[in-house]
Design goal:
Elements: E1 5-9, H1 13-22, E2 27-31, H2 34-44, E3 49-52, H3 61-71, E4 79-83, H4 88-96, E5 101-104, H5 109-134, H6 144-160, E6 165-172, H7 175-182, H8 184-201, E7 207-212, E8 215-221, H9 225-241, E9 243-246, E10 249-252, E11 255-261, H10 271-288, E12 294-295
Parallel strand pairs: 1-2, 1-3, 3-4, 4-5, 11-12
Antiparallel strand pairs: 6-8, 6-11, 7-8, 9-10
């Protein structure tokens, strides 16, 4: 079974069941409406593909597609429309709104399988090209610029949904000593292992980026600074207790962090930089107070 996730959005339960049975080699999530689709995305992140009906009760599939591309404009949103509307102007509107393909109802099972497979392969190729430009080459978390683009997008989303967003500035303590004592290769190993441990511990819709050198930044979506502190303090304790082994050498690591959230800024024009600046200020407080701790204000 493929690990590709597909959300099927259709208000007809028969159609949802039929599509799910035809595409059973994939992980299928069914949504009767756009609200449920967004809830699935919130819980599990963007799927690999969305099969979207056009005629939905509250908002058309075309409107939903445009909104998805606006909301996740820096991410791959693969959409195939599945609908009985096959007139020329409807097909054109489907492509104009961001659909990658169009399957008419009633659909042929083999055609649906082929079109889904084709789009998933195309998205994989695009994702590889984009990841080379968006990820830090050493740690494979987001680079600084791409991270900022994504978080600014998430801030807009959180503002519309009256959700909180918090940023965590992280600095590895005494990192220069690791490079000086064990070599820069050991330092690279620590950066890679640390970033992997933290990113694997986050929820699917949270974000992590490398800010530069031994500094990282994490964005917690729909999460206040107090909740973020609980998560980060658990990670701080795990890292502090862990022994890193590189070429037979035991290396101890700790980190300091500062956290701020969207409630702490009255501005809506440059919210990202305001929260980041406050989190960075608290990071330096944590280091001044002895390192291996987290300050939230």
């Amino acid at each position: 079974m493929s690990n590709k996730r597909i959300i099927v959005v259709d208000d007809d339960p028969v159609n949802r069941t039929l599509i799910s049975s035809v595409l059973q080699e994939y992980i299928i999530l069914a949504a009767p409406d756009i609200k449920t689709m967004y809830q699935l995305i919130k819980e599990g992140g963007l799927p690999d593909l969305i099969l979207l009906d056009v005629m939905l009760p509250e908002v058309s599939g075309f409107e939903a597609a445009r909104a998805l591309h606006q909301e996740f404009r820096n991410q791959d949103v693969g959409i195939i429309f599945v609908t009985s509307r096959t007139e020329g102007h409807a097909v054109k509107e489907g492509f104009d709104s961001g659909g990658y393909d169009y399957v008419k109802k009633p659909f042929d099972s083999l055609e649906l399988i082929a079109r889904v497979k084709n789009q998933l392969e195309r998205l994989d190729r695009e994702h590889k090209l984009k990841s080379d430009a968006s990820l830090d080459s050493l740690t494979r978390v987001y680079n600084r610029k791409y991270f900022q683009d994504l978080v600014e997008q998430k801030i807009n989303f959180c503002n519309r949904k009256s959700m909180k967003l918090s940023l965590v500035m992280i600095d590895l303590d005494n990192f220069k000593q690791i490079n000086d004592s064990f070599s820069h290769l050991a330092g690279d190993y620590i950066l890679q292992t640390f970033s992997s441990h933290v990113s694997d511990s986050l929820r699917k819709y949270d974000l992590m980026g490398r800010f530069g050198g031994e500094e990282f930044v994490v964005a917690f979506i729909d999460c206040c600074k107090e909740c973020s502190y609980t998560i980060m303090d658990r990670l701080r304790d795990e890292i502090d207790k862990r022994t890193f082994i590189f070429e037979g050498n035991e290396i101890h690591l700790s980190f300091s962090a500062g956290i701020a959230d969207s409630r702490e800024s009255e501005s809506r024009n440059d919210l990202y930089n305001e929260i980041l600046k406050l989190a960075d200020h608290r990071l330096y407080e944590a280091k001044d107070e002895g390192r291996n701790q987290i300050v939230i204000g």
